[in-house]
Amino acid sequence: MKYYARRLTFYVITLWAAISLNFFIPRLMPGNAEDIFRAKMARKGELTPAMEKSIQLLFGSDDQSSLWDQYLRYWNNLLHGDLGTSITKFPAPVSELIGQALPWTIVLVGLATVLSFVIGISLGAWVGWRRGTWVDGIIPASTLLQSVPYFWLALILIAVFSVNLAWFPIIGGYDTFMFPDGPVATWEFFSSAVYHGFLPALTIVLSSVGGWLLGMRNMMVSTLSEDYITTAEAKGLRPFRVLTTYATRNAALPSLAGFSVSLGFVVAGSIVMEQVFTYPGVGKLMINAVQDKDFALMQGVFLVITVTVLAANFLMDLLYGFIDPRARHNG
């Protein structure tokens, strides 16, 4: 029980620190979100006193409140689900913009991350079990794919399968001509989304499966030298049972910790991939927010990513403590 209490305390303090940094850092950066918004509005016409008052109310500068008061107001807004208002998409709330982009990223990047993890762990266990044979030749090929930059691999896939062969679309998350009014929960829309998401998902899988495979292969080689593996083989257990029950299950434990981090960063999306494919996910939303100096949107995206990563790590710590008693007893 002490193990879980320590982990919970750690993550609560980390969450408080992350939210506090998310509040203070934009205010310490050069530039001012209110001035940027006022300049953009001025390009469209003269600012009236009523518009000036609305801008001040929007950014909370109508009163001469202290930084501490603004900090408390920021926490109050967060607890009520208010992440602010986007400058570039005014008057759309930040939470609404993130809510629109989040499902695209979770479905695409989440499924691709899980798929690459399962493929990498399975192949890594097999290669480690058959170490020293021709199967080891898979390692250089997978490592080569992992070393290729994300954007370059994405551009190669686009050039081959979209431009030359015309098998897949180049950009977008669905066929906008078929659904001009936006996503519709129909089978046709689902098919269109899968069709548009195939190449981005393939980019993620090809780029990340090599890391899981190599790590699992090395852990398998280390685990197979343990005494309990020798004992299991001496007892006459079937090789398949030794592979699955004794070797793979123990060798996969370190990979679970890395998987929790990867799963947490699913919400962040694959920024370069989403930019190359113009995919409507959180990664592309974050790039647009940085380019347009939309501080409220940047804060909202960073906060969602931070909370998700912490939650994924916390859940994995609980699971790790459950499946590995050594983590609980060794603190």
Write a brief structural summary.
The chain has about 325 residues and is mainly α.
How would you characterize this protein structure?
It is a single chain. The protein folds into two domains: 2-79, no CATH class; 94-313, Orthogonal Bundle (MetI-like fold). It has 15 helices and no strands. The model has no long low-confidence stretch (mean pLDDT 77). The relative contact order is 0.14. The chain has helices at 2-28, 33-43, 49-59, 67-79, 94-129, 138-147, 150-164, 187-223, 227-234, 239-251, 253-264, 271-276, 282-291, 295-323, 325-329. Helices cover 73% and strands 0% of the residues. The protein is an all-alpha fold. The radius of gyration is 25 Å and the shape is globular.
Main beta sheet: strand number and arrangement?
A: none
**What's the N-to-C terminus distance?**
11 Å
Mean pLDDT: 77
> Which regions have little confidence, pLDDT < 50, spanning 5+ residues?
none
Structural category? mainly alpha
Shape: globular
The CATH architecture of the largest domain comes to Orthogonal Bundle
How many β-strand stretches?
Answer: 0
In total, the number of domains comes to 2
CATH topology of the largest domain: MetI-like fold
The helix content, as a percent range, equals: over 70%
CATH class of the largest domain: Mainly Alpha
- Can you count the helices? 15
Strand content: under 5%
CATH superfamily annotation of the largest domain: MetI-like
Order of helices and strands: HHHHHHHHHHHHHHH
Question: Nearest-angstrom radius of gyration?
Answer: 25 Å
The protein's oligomeric status is single chain
